[in-house]
Amino acid sequence: MANELGKAEDETAQKLILAGMELFGQYGFKGTTTRMIAEAADSNIGSIAYYFDNKTGLYHAIARHIARRMREVFGFTGEQSAASASDCDQALAQLELIVKRMVRQFAQAPEARRWLMLVMREQASPTEAFDILYEETFERVHVHLTRLIAVVMDRSPDERRVIIEAHTVMGQIVFFLVGRFPLLRRLGIEDEFPPDVVDTAEQVVISHLHALAFTTKG
Asked: What are the HTH tetR-type domain coordinates in residue numbering (predicted)?
């Protein structure tokens, strides 16, 4: 009985997180009420206080949920190190695997679309939730990519140029989600990226990574 009760509580909290994610993304923190979230989650309004203390607590729990899921789907579940990439070829091989995971997630997975609006709001106007997203995911991914790109470019990972190159690579990948509708329309595609388009997207980003190997110091 206790296990069944615990499972029910977990399911209720999860429904509140998913409902809140969609509503906060659509209406923002101020425009979303606890009543709206409770109704969308098919729960009573007191459940938010029970599980998360208040609306802010739920908002931060959603940020942690997104950060955790990003780490999982991108393969950043533990401490990442570029130390194993001792040369350009090894670094490029690791980067290619990361790019493929990220492109497929942003181009194809519906889950990423549920994250999108809330994450974009936090990028545009950061709150404490942005600190959660940054410290638990954004920084980890960015630092790891920067270290690998530094190996490829034979530069220090602390150089601004290398950090900006890593940021540019991430931006290219993320824009397959943020700019999906303009690209779909430009390609004359109705709803989803077909597999051959995703394959081409991977190849384009990977070709840009290989071009970094020819970037000279200076």
From this structure: 10-70
User: How many folded domains does the chain comprise?
Assistant: 2
State pLDDT tens for residues 207-217.
999 999 887 55
Whether residues 74 and 157 share a domain: the answer is yes
Q: What is the pLDDT of residues 48-77, one digit of tens each?
A: 999 999 999 999 999 999 999 998 888 876
Please indicate, yes or no, if residue 77 is contained in any of the structural domains: yes
> Cβ–Cβ contacts within 10 Å for residue 174, how many?
18
Supply the DSSP symbol for 103: H
Measured in degrees and rounded to the nearest 5, phi and psi for residue 132 equal -65, -50
Residue 6, Cβ density class (10 Å: 0-12 exposed, 13-18 middle, ≥19 buried): exposed
**176 with 201: CB under 8 angstroms?**
yes
Q: Return the SS3 of 195.
A: helix
Domain range for 7: 1-53
Indicate if 159 and 193 belong to the same structural domain.
yes
Q: Count Cβ neighbours within 10 Å for each residue of 112-126 and write b for 16 or more, e otherwise.
A: bebbebbbebbeeee
pTM of the model: 0.86
pLDDT digits (tens, 9 = 90+) for 22-58: 999 999 999 999 999 999 999 999 999 999 999 999 9
φ/ψ region of 44 (left if φ > 0, alpha if ψ in -120 to 50, else beta) reads beta
CB 132 within 8 A of CB 60: yes
